[in-house]
């Protein structure tokens, strides 16, 4: 039984025998009752705003092109953000970090007792 439609009655629709066989085969293929299969098909067409007589080829290509354009737009925005914001900011931070580090000089320097050993004994 179809969930949510248990209490509803049945109505007869007149369709051709060959169409009925094909529809029943399709319904069994998707593991749904005939009522639910027909409901899913109707909701699909209503939701997508298309008619069964329309050809999806050009419409899908148009949608694909639109999506590609939007993706290219997003990529362009990200590249612009990287050029104008991320790289300069990273450069400024690196410059500040390089300046902030003091040059380390050793605290203790070893003094040599005999600075010029060769000339000492002469």
UniProtKB/TrEMBL annotation:
It comes from the Bacteria. Residues 103-122 are annotated as: Disordered. InterPro entries: BfmA-like_N. This is BfmA/BtgA family mobilization protein. It comes from Autumnicola tepida.
